[in-house]
Amino acid sequence: MDGARVLIAAGATAVCCFVCAFWVFRSSSSSSPASPKKHQSPSTNCCGCASCGCRDAKPANGEMAVGGENKKKAPEPDPPEAPSMMEQLVPEITTHALSYLDYTSLCRLSMTNSAMRRAANDDGAWKALYHKDFTVEQGTINPPNGWKAYYAATKAIINLNAEFYNIIREGSLPAMSRFWLNADYVKCIHATGEFCPGYNSVMESWGLLFNWGQDGGQGIGFQIRDVRVRVLGEMAWVNMKANVDVDPLVFHVTNVYELCNGRWYMVHHHSSLMAHPAPHNMFG
């Protein structure tokens, strides 16, 4: 009887020890942190498993995965560009440098970038270019649309005036009829002194001149110099000196143009023979 009690007590003690040991082992395993994995397959997800489908992980490239879609960071703004050499120059130096360029070069420069456009459209640069190419006689005027527009208008009149003498050289009456404004107030005074008022009279005089010209109908070649142009609104006039190619006689010429329907037309032509210079002491 005593031996049975001893065996029962020993078995109960062994069972209690086994239960306590199991409880301690379970508690320690659940509370301790998981050991880091030394080797992780590239195909596993953020938690190390291959099939959990985690969507709240942050990829290595800096993009945040939200709702299965990658949301990229906003790009950082580019640093401001350093000012160009032209922008760093004193305005007076810039104007002086641009004054060495011609009309075509300034127009091309204005199409490169915004800084060059501001510099190439400078009113002082176009005023200096006008005085270099044309005349300084108009240095005191203030063109209402700026010196660039005034330069362009002056150049257009100079080209138109050169076309007038090309028509005379070619002896083309149809071209001359299109060159003049068809109006009653137009006038033409030839070097012979003939006065022709009105469009029809002017065209008749040019027809006679071309028929009388060299080689039976050929025009007359003129050389022009000292061309001076003034543009004022819708009117422009040109003063110059002209002479026939083989003739030493020099004529004073005044041509007047009018802007009509966006086109310049001649409305007045006056040519007179230049007088010989008088002696210094005309009473001596």
Automatic annotation (TrEMBL):
Gene3D superfamilies: 1.20.1280.50, 3.10.450.50. It comes from the Eukaryota. Pfam families: F-box-like, SnoaL_3. The lineage of its organism: Eukaryota, Viridiplantae, Streptophyta, Embryophyta, Tracheophyta. PANTHER family: F-BOX PROTEIN SKIP8. Residues 64-84 are annotated as: Disordered. Transmembrane segments: none annotated. Residues 83-129 form the F-box domain. This is F-box protein SKIP8.
